[in-house]
Amino acid sequence: MIHENDPRPWQVEQSEYIHNLPWFTVRKDAIRMENGGTIPNYFVFEYPSWINVVAVTTDNQLVLIRQYRHAIAGIHYELCAGVVDPNEEPLVAAQRELLEETGFGGGQWELLMTLSANPGTHSNVTYAYLATGVELKQAQHLESTEEITVHIVSHERAREIINTGEMMQSLHLAPLLKYLLNRMGGPAGFSDLSEQA
């Protein structure tokens, strides 16, 4: 939604790539603002689109994963997630990643929300999908750089995971929280049920 008094988009006067590798592409822009202000060195991180999946099984359990994350040197719960390949539709990427990482597939799919890791620095978005009625279809099919364990948890356990800080990835917390809030009838319902968990 656009508001009448919204700030104006910035003008890029000059742009150059500082670094250009698949997982670390940084662009430097020289910016001129509508009010006359300038930012000579504005850095933007370019990534492909990302996806993640809130997956609910046919018996109403949630499919979560755990893996080591080197930057914070920790292992936490996460949603299944991944990168959208070039010329790939986000929904196709989400279905592919869920099947590869967890072995679960099928069900009914819908876009739950679209997120930015940080709109001040990141150029990409994350498409978060809700997949209901998924079933175990195959064994995991992991890449050599992936070490992922699959965990089937109840909704009550998912609330406990959130409340105890066992999930750290904010792009995963947001869609899971939205799903739980919608399922329970809004923030008051989530608060009441989380106290009972």
Tell how many strands the DSSP assignment holds. Answer: 11
**Total domain units:** 2
CATH topology of the largest domain: Nucleoside Triphosphate Pyrophosphohydrolase
CATH homologous superfamily identity of the largest domain: Nucleoside Triphosphate Pyrophosphohydrolase
Which architecture of the largest domain does the CATH hierarchy give at level 2?
Alpha-Beta Complex
The class by helix and strand makeup works out as alpha+beta
Mean pLDDT across all residues, rounded? Answer: 93
Order of helices and strands: EEEEEEEHEEEEHHH
CATH class of the largest domain: Alpha Beta
How much helical structure, as a percent, in the residues?
10-25%
In percent terms, what proportion of residues is strand? 35-45%
Please state the overall shape, judged from the principal axes of the Cα atoms: globular
Number of helices: 4
Low-pLDDT sequence parts: 188-197
Keywords: Hydrolase
Pfam families: NUDIX
InterPro entries: NUDIX_hydrolase-like_dom_sf, NUDIX_hydrolase_CS, NUDIX_hydrolase_dom
Family: Belongs to the Nudix hydrolase family. NudK subfamily.
